[in-house]
Amino acid sequence: MQGWLNSPLTPKGEADAARQGEILSGLDLDGFTYLCSPSGRTVQTAGIACGRIAESVCTDMRLREIGVGDWAGRLRDELPQGTGDDPYMAQYEMAPSGEGMAVLSARCQAFLADLNGPAVLITHGITSRVIRSIVVGPHALANPSIRGGQGCVYHLKGGVQNLLT
To answer: Which residues cross the membrane (predicted)?
Structure first.
């Protein structure tokens, strides 16, 4: 579990970011702002994906990944397993000194309330899930093919989520 720790992008992460840049360059993003998590891996993604289309990319702490407290840097397999419909997500609630989903949700809601127009957001998998569920509703996570985060570009507008490819 990485949480607020950092690591450089893998070759796959670099390829995903390049593909995100291709997708974004095909869109009309006139008037959009570009915002990303301050995490090094996210800033690196933003540089690859937005470097040719954005005049600048600003960081916002509220876009960082969920904090996993004492479990940062630990492998999921060595941690207690979560229960319920989604044991993977349940682990985030169990992490000692972790942020938890309610705090992450409040952080994302505050971020969204401060947006002043359309924006390209470069963030993390769990943070993306929370933002999408706030903007689109819980059904944004209902389709298993679009539950994940890394390497994806989502367009959210009018209560509708589209996975761009």
So the answer is: none
